[in-house]
């Protein structure tokens, strides 16, 4: 398995492309700039098989329909945000992108519990990590030692919880119970900013004192 971080969209949200030896790819959180994403995929000779969403805030979903329509692939999202893709008030674009509210088709596959997804022979453990939003999930690939954590945990920071249905206490519980319980050398691939590791954040994240 290989993967690459691609900052895209109005807030330079980290999209991730994950692919296997057969050049079958999965895109996590395509936040925007679809043509830039397509050009990168073409340069690698990759074909997309699925879109995984860590959550449905506007800056993570801007290119979802572009990818879905071009490659005819399913979009996965937690059921607690089933209505967010088509609702600018819920996905935040009504407030943060006043001239370009985002209204896209609902997800094709709803994640209703923690489970293992196998796509292109890659196993993703779906970890429910709410707090930043009610349906936030992290996708953990144990064999590769990486967790795609969305806006739950950042390098030296954590996700904001002042948006609708956010919860600071719940976010800290998610980080403690789900992410900090992973192997210490696990790479954390966040929704914004540089990659980090569980050990690095355990030792030096000022928001996680006592973890």
UniProtKB/TrEMBL annotation:
Q: What is this protein called?
A: Metallo-beta-lactamase domain-containing protein
Cofactor field: Zn(2+)
Q: What are the protein's GO molecular function terms?
A: hydrolase activity; metal ion binding
The UniProt entry, under InterPro entries, shows: MBL_Glyoxalase_II, Metallo-B-lactamas, RibonucZ/Hydroxyglut_hydro
Q: Which organism is it from?
A: Bacillus solimangrovi
> Keyword Lipid biosynthesis, does the record have it?
no
Database matches in Pfam families: Lactamase_B
Q: Which UniProt keywords apply?
A: Hydrolase, Metal-binding, Zinc
Domain Metallo-beta-lactamase per the UniProt entry, residue ranges: 12-192
The cross-references to CDD domains, in alphabetical order and at most eight, read: metallo-hydrolase-like_MBL-fold
